[in-house]
From TrEMBL:
One of its GO terms (molecular function) is secondary active sulfate transmembrane transporter activity. One of its GO terms (cellular component) is membrane. The keyword Membrane applies. It is a multi-pass membrane protein. Residues 737-760 are annotated as: Disordered. It comes from the Eukaryota. This is STAS domain-containing protein. The gene is SLC26A4. Keywords: Membrane, Transmembrane, Transmembrane helix. The chain crosses the membrane at residues 75-95, 101-117, 183-204, 258-274, 332-354, 374-397, 409-431, 468-493. It is found in: Membrane. Residues 524-728 form the STAS domain.
Length: 779
């Protein structure tokens, strides 16, 4: 290796206590909750303009709007997006189960408020098939056709009056449910934005959203099959509802209207082919071909000219009234009926919008405020619900059109709203002959991008199998259990994978790269060494109540023995040794224990604590007919040698254990208590334990939880693993050479003469005077 690519470090060996002393650690200032609240609501004249701009982001970009450069692109983008938005509003209203004109309202009103309150300059606000389907599931479950049946004037085959659906009452009820649910969704979003909990959407990971939207796309396709085939089906919601709907379609497949089916198939083919053409020649086309608009105009003209509804029984839109409906308040009594679905729909709609907004914000180096987006969409949905619209978010396809055709700001959004307004007040009645199957086909054709997410599965499997499992399980759960329950299942499974990964963290035994301070997993490298008599254990996860037992087992596996079992076995051996001493079969001498009677084992490894001939008081006492009472003696045993008793004691081949806590970011009360017990279990069998790399925050937590005492003290904390290893090596060399540590220190003080400490702490003095070098282990 080139010598220029090397560096050498020389510094003192630092324990945490020594490092804090040398560098004069400061006491961290903590604020009470009352002080934090006071600072958060503090306001000054200088902050007022910033606060106003934060809540009204339009004030950030409108004053600097470049009229000549930006306006032409915004006009083109607004006109193009507006036409697509109007037709998608008509189509997506079928997913919600309300008349098409309410889809136009949902495509118009949210844009007005988002223009003022939104932080994204490129987002195209309006209905989205996934959220519309989630809302439609609630609408159809609370207001199914069966509740609005009445006996008609005609009679059936058996002579009974046929049942007819009261469409006027049904539509009125469904509109009330949809608008009330939209307002509740807006209230949820607004409340989340006010309390600054936009971070909750982070729990919806990309694999989870991918699996959810793919399943939702399948649900959307199945829901539109009844329009494409023009066959009657019942309304289902919940578990296996998708398969029940498919069953009804196949049951009534003979009633298929061929005109509707042919129109739908042709629409799907043409729309998908033209969209592919737009994508392929995106850079050459000035604007994408608005194929949805073209198909809609052609179908409306053909349907009107051939009177498809009367002559062939085709299902058409029939009524699109001009103008607006007066605003009305939501039915608050219905809120309890769809509280849970409203919350989940609000979270999903926000997650979709913020993910798309961040994509284009990163592309154009802009900033999107997640909490302000919640407030913007919340107010937009409240406003939209009061004007008879349904839930609004964004669609990647619409936003892509708005951005790719030159849209620079939300002025393009306002222009697109003007295009929808033209349809509402003027063009709407011209679309009344439009076939519903064509609208359903437009929805299906626009779902191609969602279905293409299936290609992510093998990629995820190669990159991260856990994320792949999240994608697949969420998708299957949404297909079989429904979108709301499936989404909840996916979130729980996703959080479960996080818990499992922290409950069974990666633990490893580290070794040293020779002549460096680098420590790596022993299993991953050949040219690393293990310090004799020392084990370095690393846990790469937070330590808390759920994984502390697993951590204990991993430590046992690393050191190769159970400290509790070793302690019990040693106690058992000591008891037997004391019994042999009492019986006179073993004698304590200067050279250790000497067997008086043949035991088959001669062990000279024991050291005498005191003379068994002596008793307290200094005089020998004769009792019980001349027999001396056996004195209890403490016997120090070399446990690595053969013992004079028949007790098998696990071998302890280490004298020190270093725990690398550099990756530990959290420690709870139960984990701290158990960790302290683990340390004491090792220390009572003569194995010293050191904690290396603890973050200051972890140390503060330890102190607040009463982790340290006389046995487990701060002296076992070290800045790094290498500091701990060099200290252990220094201690071991001192014991082997019979030189006292004080002598070593005095010698080093003569050489280096560091400034003395005022604290009466031996460890600090030791660490400050022993310098750490990169070649410390090899020397």
């Amino acid at each position: 290796m080139d010598s220029q690519n090397q560096y050498c470090v020389s510094r003192p060996i630092y324990s945490t206590r020594a490092f804090e002393h040398v560098n004069e650690k400061q006491v961290r200032e903590t604020k009470t909750i009352k002080e934090r609240l006071r600072n958060s609501v503090k306001c000054s004249p200088k902050l007022i303009p910033q606060i106003i701009k934060k809540f009204f982001p339009i004030l950030n970009w409108l004053p600097i709007y470049q009229l000549k450069q930006w306006l032409p692109g915004d006009i083109v983008a607004g006109v193009t997006t507006g036409m697509v938005c109007a037709l998608q509003g008509l189509a997506y209203s079928l997913l919600v189960g309300v008349p098409p004109v309410y889809g136009l309202y949902a495509a118009f009103f949210p844009i007005l408020t988002y223009f003022i309150l939104g932080t994204s300059r490129h987002l195209s606000v309006g209905p989205f098939p996934v959220t519309c389907l989630m809302q439609g599931a609630v609408v159809l479950s609370l207001a199914p056709d069966e509740l609005f049946l009445y006996h008609g004037n005609t009679t059936g085959v058996n002579g009974t009056a046929t049942l007819v659906v009261n469409t006027t009452a049904r539509d009125a009820t469904r509109i009330s449910i949809a608008t009330s649910m939209t307002v509740l969704i807006g209230l949820f979003q607004f409340g989340m934005g006010v309390v600054q909990v936009g971070f909750l959407v982070r729990y919806l990971s990309d694999p989870l959203v991918g699996g959810f939207t793919t399943a939702a796309a399948l649900q959307v396709v199945v829901s539109q099959l009844k329009l494409i085939f023009n066959v009657p089906t019942n309304n289902y919601n919940g578990i296996l509802s998708l398969f029940y709907t498919i069953g009804d379609i196949f049951k009534n497949i003979k009633q298929t209207n061929m005109v509707d089916l042919i129109a739908a198939v042709l629409t799907i083919i043409v729309v998908m082919l033209v969209k592919e053409f737009n994508t392929k020649f995106q850079k050459k086309l000035p604007v994408p071909i608005p194929i949805e608009v073209i198909v809609t105009i052609i179908d409306s003209g053909v349907s009107y000219a051939m009177d498809l509804s009367t002559n062939y029984g085709a299902g058409i839109v029939r009524t699109i009234p001009r103008g607006f409906i007066p605003p009305r308040s939501p039915d608050v009594s219905l809120f309890s009926s769809f509280g849970g679905p409203s919350f989940s729909t609000g979270v999903v709609s926000y997650a979709i919008a913020i993910s798309v907004a961040k994509v284009y914000a990163a592309k154009h180096e802009l900033i999107v405020d997640g909490n302000q987006e919640l407030i913007a969409f919340g107010i937009s949905n409240i406003f939209c619900g009061c004007f008879s619209g349904f839930v609004a978010t964004t669609a990647l396809s619409r936003t892509a059109i708005q951005e790719s055709t030159g849209g620079k700001t939300q002025v393009a959004g306002i222009i697109s709203a003007l295009m929808v307004l033209i349809v509402i007040v003027a063009v709407g009645p011209l679309l009344q002959p439009l076939q519903k199957s064509v609208l359903g086909a437009i929805i299906v054709a626009n779902l191609k991008g969602m279905f293409m997410q299936v290609h992510d599965v093998p990629i995820l499997w190669r990159k991260n199998k856990t994320d792949c499992c999240i994608w697949v399980l969420t998708c299957l759960a949404c297909i079989f259990l429904g979108l709301d329950v499936g989404l909840l299942t996916g979130v729980i499974f996703e959080l479960g994978t996080v818990v499992i990964r922290t409950q069974f963290p990666t633990c490893s035994t580290l070794g040293n790269v020779p002549s460096t301070e680098i420590y790596k997993n022993m299993k991953d490298y050949k040219n690393i060494i293990e310090c004799p008599g020392v084990k370095v254990f690393k846990c790469a996860a937070p330590i808390y109540f759920a994984n502390i037992e697993y951590l204990r087992d991993q430590i046992k596996h690393t050191v190769g023995f159970n400290a509790v079992r070793v302690f019990k076995k040693r106690n058992k051996a000591l008891k037997k040794i004391h019994q042999l001493i009492k019986k006179g079969k073993l004698k304590v001498t200067e050279n250790g224990l000497v067997p008086v009677a043949p035991l088959g084992v001669d062990n000279e490894a024991f050291e005498r604590e005191r003379d068994p001939e002596q008793v307290e008081g200094g005089a020998q006492q004769e009792v019980n007919g001349g027999a001396r009472p056996a004195a209890e003696v403490e016997v120090q045993v070399d446990w690595s040698s053969t013992l004079p008793v028949s007790v098998r004691i696990p071998k302890v081949n280490i004298h020190s254990l270093v725990m690398d806590f550099t990756a530990v970011s959290f420690l709870d009360v139960m984990a701290a208590k158990s960790l302290k017990l683990i340390i004491k279990e090792f220390m009572r069998i003569g194995v010293n334990v050191y904690l290396a790399g603890c973050d200051d925050e972890i140390i503060m937590k330890m102190e607040s939880m009463g982790f340290f005492d006389e046995v487990v003290n701060r002296g076992m904390l070290f800045i790094s693993v290498h500091d701990a290893i060099l200290y252990i090596k220094m201690e071991t060399d001192s014991e082997n050479s019979d030189d006292s540590m004080a002598e070593k220190i005095s010698q080093m003080q003569d050489d280096k003469a560091p400034p003395p400490f005022t604290e009466d702490e031996d460890l600090i003095e030791t660490y400050d005077n022993q310098h750490l070098a990169i070649h410390g282990l090899s020397s």
